[in-house]
Every structure is written in C-alpha cells, then in structure tokens.
Amino acid sequence: PFDLLVIGGGPAGAAAAVYAARKGIRTGVVAERFGGQVLDTMSIENFISVQETEGPKLVTALEQHVKQYDVDIINLQRAESLSLDENGISQIRLASGATLKSKSVIIATGARWREMNVPGEKEYRGRGVAYCPHCDGPLFKGKRIAVVGGGNSGVEAAIDLAGIVEHVTLLEFGSELRADAVLQKKLYSLPNVVVLKQAQTTSVLGDGQKVSGLQYTDRQTGESHQVDLAGIFVQIGLLPNTDWLKGTLELSKHGEIEVDNRGQTSLAGVFAAGDVTTVPFKQIVIAMGDGAKASLGAFDYLMRH
Ligand code: FAD
Question: Which of 40, 85, 136, 290 is catalytic?
Fold first, then answer.
C-alpha cells in the first residue's frame, strides 16, 4: 500500500504531496483533473511572492514541483468511495473499478461555486462574471457591480466591494436577506449600495467582450428590469466535493469535512485540507498551507502507527 494517498490535485493536494514526498514516504496523488479550480482562473494577483500569474501557468508549476519527487500521479481518475479495513488501512475505490490502499489519506477534493444557470453566465465567466470578491474585487475599482445572493457571503461581499467599487446592487431572490442582522445593519448604512429583494436574475448581458449588465424579474410584479453593470459577483453558495463521502466521515451542515487543527478528520489516519474542509476563507495560499499542515499531520500519525 501507499503510506500516503492524496485525493485531489489542486493547490492543497499538490502541497500535501510535496511535503509527504520530502519525508521519503511512498506517496500517490489521485486527481480527477490535476490543477483543480486554479485551471479555471484567468488572472491571479494574490498568490504572495508572485505578483501576477495565470491559472494554467500556476498549475504547470505545481505539477513540475510535484514531479521533482517520487510521487505517483494518477490523473483523470475519480475516487468514488473510502473505507477502512480491519487493520485501519484505507481502501479508495476509483470510478475505473480499481481499489488503492494506503496507510493514511489526505482528502483535498476542493469545492465548486454554485452557478445561477442563466444565459450569459458561462459566456462571461472571467469577463465580468466573478465568484470570489477577495480575488477579483480590485478589478472593478470605480465601477458599478452587482452581487447576487443575500446570505452571509453575499452581504459580506457587498460590504467588502462597496469599499472598492463605485456602486453595488445586491439582488436577493427571497423577500428578506438571510444574512446575520449585524451584517445587514452594516450593509444598509452604506451610501453606495442598493438592495433589491424578490429579484430573480434571468440573464447576464454583455457586448460580446465583457459584461454590460443583467436582467432580473421582480417576483412581486412579474416585471422585467435591466441594470447596467461592469461586474456580477455570484454568491449563492460554495459546494464542497464530498458527495462521495456522505456517511463515511463527519461533515458540517454545508457538507464540508470537519477537521481539527492538524487536518485530522473523524476517521483515524484520514486527513483533509483546502476548500473541501471547514477551513474558513477559500483561497490558493490558504489551501496550500492547509495541504502542508495536513501532510505533516499525516506523517506524525504514520510515525505513531
Ligand atoms: P481545488 O482547486 O478545487 O482542487 C480539487 C482537486 O480535487 C481537483 O484536482 C479535482 O479534480 C479533484 N477532485 C474532486 N473530486 C474528486 C474525486 N472524487 N476524486 C478525485 N479527485 C477529485 N484563489 C485565490 O487565492 N486567488 C484567486 O485569484 C482565485 N481566483 C479564482 C477564480 C475562480 C474562477 C475560481 C473558481 C476560484 C478562484 N480562487 C482563487 C479559489 C482557489 O482556486 C481555491 O481556493 C483553491 O483552488 C482550492 O484548492 P483545493 O486544492 O482545496 O481545491
């Protein structure tokens, strides 16, 4: 068996693999798509010490770094289930039918943003349609933007962005915002924010190059309206890739893997790192640190077993 098998080839999984390989233990990485969310990212300006890079470039660097070491990269393979045998060895079944065995595991299967699924959203993704205020907020300095979603993440994004952009329109589908009262109070105190409730976004508008606005239906009157905008931040949920783990280990109510401060999950010898876990704030630099931490946690576990 492997000493450590990493499931997921994003920044968390890559960092975990490098740390493990440097301990000289037998390490493997299984990834459905090596690179993860970073592959879908155009410009990255907050990966500290690299002023500016592009997602695919960073993925190439991640892959080269992992390949410096003796790591088995099993790419284009999806893990479908995890169980422990009577000796505490993890068994990971892949979609191909194969089963891999490992003394310890790090789950780093990441997350994906929930999409609105309206016309124009995919077309203008990265060209005005954004999902991460920490990543893309500064690109809209001095412009008019919308935030879709009135839960905690939407209202936090609106407050954050209001300090950077000229004007924020927040659209909430329901009749009330669902964010904490203290966040709502802060939001309503800002002069450059307008809140639209019962507003269902129906399409993203653009000029062929970039976003120019959005269309929404007022669910009370049934009327359709248009707002002119340079950007739309979609904040209707981040979905952790844990469907394959339901019933196997402890998940939060949002489906994130519960971990302790060493990345240990509720199963002995099974660790987790990055966006798939309860770690707050989902960012590349955070996922990498988390992967390194879980890897050292797993190494410490192996020393004792
Ligand atoms: P991921 O990157 O999601 O990687 C998960 C890995 O697991 C992938 O290899 C995936 O194929 C694999 N996987 C999933 N399920 C399975 C399975 N069942 N079996 C096997 N493998 C599986 N962050 C920043 O810091 N700066 C930015 O500018 C920035 N911009 C972003 C722009 C976009 C459009 C997006 C979507 C995200 C952006 N982020 C940015 C967030 C950042 O990409 C994530 O926080 C980071 O990639 C999380 O790393 P991760 O390794 O935890 O997960």
Answer: 136
Nearest atom in ligand 1 to the alpha carbon of residue 274 is 52
Q: What is the pTM of this model?
A: 0.94
Kindly state if the Cβ of 10 falls inside 6 Å of ligand 1: yes
Nearest-atom number in ligand 1 for the CA of 31 is 21
pLDDT tens digits, one per residue of 43-58: 899 999 999 999 999 9
Kindly write down the DSSP assignment for every residue of the chain, as one continuous string: -EEEEEE--SHHHHHHHHHHHTTT--EEEEESSTTGGGGG-SEE--BTTBSSEEHHHHHHHHHHHHHTS-EEEEES--EEEEEE-TTS-EEEEETTS-EEEEEEEEE---EEEPP---TTTTTTBTTTEES-HHHHGGGGTTSEEEEE--SHHHHHHHHHHHTTSSEEEEE-SSSS--S-HHHHHHHHT-TTEEEE-SEEEEEEEE-SSSEEEEEEEETTT--EEEEE-SEEEE-S-EEES-GGGTTTS-B-TTSPBP--TT-B-SSTTEEE-GGGBS-SS--HHHHHHHHHHHHHHHHHHHHH-
Query: Among 80, 109, 134, 248, which is best to mutate for testing ligand 1, by the most ligand atoms less than 8 A from CB?
Result: 109
* Ligand 1 near 69 CB (within 6 A): no
